[in-house]
Amino acid sequence: MKIFNDPISTTDLYKRIYHVVDETSLLAKRKFKRIIGNKPSSMDILLKKGHTNLSIFQERELAKELKDLDLSNSFYMENFKDNGIKSAVMKIIDRILFQNIRLRESLSLLLNAYDICSLGLMNTTNNSRTSSINWHRDGVGHRIKIFLPLINYGLSIPTLYFESSHKESCIPQNWEMFRASKKSHKESVDLFYSIETQCLRHYREISINWNTDTVIFIDTNGIHASSCLKLDRLNTINGKYLGSRLFLQLELMDITQAQIVHRYRLGNSLSPYNKDIISRIYNSLSYENDRGFYAPSSYG
Q1: Which among 74, 23, 79, 135 has a CA at the least distance from the CA of 276?
Q2: In the sheet where 224-226 sits, what is the strand order?
Q3: Assigned domain for 291 exists
Q4: Domain that holds residue 67
Q5: CB atoms < 10 A from the CB of 229, how many?
Q6: pTM for the whole thing?
Q7: What does the alpha-carbon distance between residue 204 and residue 1 come to, in Å, rounded to a whole number?
Q8: Domain count, the chain
Q9: CA-CA distance, 295 to 118, in Å (whole number)?
Q10: Phi-psi map region of 50: left, alpha, beta (phi>0 left; psi -120 to 50 alpha)
């Protein structure tokens, strides 16, 4: 269902590039659909609705160790040069990701259609003045982001998502460009509710909570936003700093799609950091083959 039909005016080259990204990401999505078949599962929900989650157990001792590293400042780290942080990430991988059988199975299924293009430790600020407050798509085609919430510092702000909106074409629309432009707070609020009203005619809006006992899967081609503006309008936060959240993030895309996006949209080459950790994930999941799970190819 196409609810927006106002693509951005740009060069023919840019249009051709995005058509290739769109087709490439759709091929990966179709491959994923063939892999999971018709069996009801959390991955089937991801394919149909654009999001899903899995419940996990997180050790209190691990959360304490992460807090002791003092990771409360806002940053995004892909290149773990600090040995203490790298050691902590390895513990997260070993003691959460590898210990949960359903999570391992889900990753194994995904990695038969997508590649891990990024792995990072992220700490984002919950504030009603950041760019993620506006409705948007990530503009890179069908990309699966996996979030593993680790610590909430202060108030945890849910993410809003329009179910099944990930099925829209990835070709950027004019309304998506407003997020990058400078606007007053009132303009941001007006835009937020204008887009929301239009989307609600076609899609169901849901709230995704960042609980530390949950792993979140999102297709970022779906329309999503932070819920800060809604809370702000209800006069519950009034633009105040709300704390932050620390989480591990994996980005999954078709490798060809990722290379195109990095070269033409981000202006750099695809060169994932932490290849040793990513290889560890691939190698661990490949051992699941004797238990009936899919075994992804090794990471190059």
Answers
A1: 79
A2: 205-208, 159-162, 224-226
A3: no
A4: 12-286
A5: 23
A6: 0.84
A7: 13
A8: 1
A9: 20
A10: left
**Closest Cα partner for 166 from 133, 130, 128, 206?**
206
- Fill in the amino acid letter for 181: S
Read off the CATH number of the domain in which 62 is found: 2.60.120
DSSP string for 126-151: --TTSGGGS-B--SSSS-EEEEEEEE
Residue linked to tokens 């003092």 = 70
Which of helix, strand or coil describes residue 196?
Answer: helix
Please check the confidence at residue 249 and state whether its pLDDT lies above 80: yes
What sign has the CA pseudo-torsion 150, 156, 162, 168? negative
243 forms beta bridges with 154
27-77 residue pLDDT tens: 888 888 887 776 667 888 999 999 999 988 777 777 777 777 766 554 556
73-97 confidence digits (pLDDT tens) = 545 566 666 667 778 788 888 888 7
- Ordered strands of the 144-154 beta sheet: 51-55, 214-219, 144-154, 243-253, 115-125, 75-77
Looking at residue 220, its amino acid is T
